[in-house]
Amino acid sequence: MKKLLITFQFLSFIVLGISLIGFLLVSPSILAVGTDKFDLGRWLDADIFLVKFGLILFVIGLLFHLIALIFSLRLKSN
Fold it and tell me: Where are the domains of the chain?
């Protein structure tokens, strides 16, 4: 059970880190939305893909973190 806890914590940190890197790559494009500098022609499909991919990874990372929390509570109760 302890190995599962460590595994899910590790996976959570890795996935959330990848999600953060993806958001940092796209953040200049996101910050430009609604300003005079925003050009819809430059809003690439890659930016949209990275935003969707980052959100999916963020949710997966939170689920791994929740599973790790449940395992840690079970270990404390035993």
Answer: 2-77
